[in-house]
Design a protein that fits this description.
- With about 325 residues, the chain is of the alpha/beta class.
- It has helices spanning about 15-20, 60-70, 95-110, 140-155, 170-180, 200-205, 225-240, 255-260, 275-285, 290-305, 315-320; strands spanning about 30-35, 45, 55, 75-80, 115-120, 130-135, 135, 160-165, 190-195, 245, 265-270, 310.
- Strands 1, 2, 3, 4, 5, 8, 9, 10, 11 and 12 form a 10-stranded mixed β-sheet that branches.
- It is globular, with a radius of gyration of 20 Å.
């Protein structure tokens, strides 16, 4: 046959396929989410997330060193306090669990880049992401506590803060407070496009953060909406966000791409707990090849436009990059 165009020519062998690969990944773009809790000598496996643990501060160093050894140098910390109250005071306490964890991580692994998740849900007695007014979250009162939380994390050693609460105006308020206290060079990675998603189920066990009533649909986004996602992203850039995030990742590649195209800041995608647990459960049942599915999911997020990938599979993905199975 007289075929001029033969796309298969560029698929002939592994060297050629890698040579013309359009989507490339690097370990420096991986971020690992890590849970820390009060107590001593604790490494508690999360039932709904096999292979993931909640660590006490004295037990986190081994995991941090494992990550460093494979080339994962960015860690996002989530704290689980012993005591909670209506104002989530543990979130911004100088001796709070996540503040202690930042100090320990900074001491143990000074080369790590540390990111603080800024939210109230793990710390409030009602499990919502801010101060309540009746049955609703008071947006503007919550802003002050979020800013205090961000500042306390940076003072404890965080290199970057990542507000995940979805309150209107929180990026602007956090930026203002950080600047006023001399942290003008501390970046903000905004959970700009965060949906009210069923994929978060295992995280709520991991972080002990399920709301005691209602849901979070009055502040997290309706997953039917594209234009609203663009609106949120552009607002956060205007308020001073340095990096934007789309969360979850797996079912939202179209929005990762759209947010990438409509802004000029780096784009992060968070492969959330439900994505991780589905892969683990299906692999344990023998239905899928865990490693191959894990790699394919990651490539999908990068192909969609992600520059940074937040994932519980960070360590495994880094090893696959070393082995040439992905990259």
């Amino acid at each position: 046959m007289n075929l001029i165009q033969r796309p298969r020519r560029l698929r002939g062998n592994e060297i050629l396929r890698k040579m013309v690969r359009e989507t490339r990944m690097d370990k420096s773009s991986l971020m690992y989410p890590m849970f820390v809790q009060e107590g001593n000598n604790c490494k508690e496996e999360i039932r709904s997330m096999p292979g993931q643990y909640r660590y006490s501060v004295d037990c986190m160093e081994e995991k941090l060193e494992e990550l460093c050894d494979v080339g994962v140098r960015s860690v996002m910390l989530f704290g689980i306090p012993d005591k909670k109250d209506a104002l989530g005071s543990g979130a911004y306490a100088q001796d709070g669990i996540v503040q202690k964890a930042f100090r320990k991580a900074r001491e143990a692994c000074p080369d790590l880049y540390l990111i603080g998740d800024v939210c109230m849900c793990e710390y409030t007695s009602h499990g919502h992401c801010g101060v309540l007014c009746g049955q609703d979250v008071d947006n503007d009162r919550t802003l002050e506590l979020l800013a205090k939380t961000a500042l306390s994390q940076v003072q404890a050693g965080a290199d970057m803060v990542a507000p995940s609460d979805m309150m209107d105006g929180r990026v602007s308020r956090i930026r203002q407070v950080l600047d006023e206290n001399g942290y003008v060079n501390t970046p903000i990675m905004s959970y700009a496009v965060k949906f009210a998603s069923s994929f978060y189920g295992p995280f709520r066990e991991a972080a002990d953060s399920a709301p005691s009533f209602g849901d979070r649909k009055s502040y997290q986004m309706d997953y039917h909406n594209r234009r609203e996602a663009r609106k949120e992203a552009l607002l956060d850039v205007a308020e001073g966000a340095d990096i934007l995030m789309v969360k979850p990742a797996l079912a939202y590649g179209d929005l990762i791409r759209e947010m990438k195209d409509c802004t000029d800041v780096p784009m992060a995608a968070y492969s959330v707990s439900g994505e991780y647990s589905m892969v683990k459960a299906a692999a344990q049942a023998g239905f899928i090849d865990e490693e191959r599915v894990m790699c394919e999911m990651a490539v999908g997020a990068y192909r969609a436009g992600a520059d940074l990938y937040i994932t519980y599979f960070a360590e495994e993905l880094a090893k696959c990059m070393d082995d040439g199975k992905i990259g």
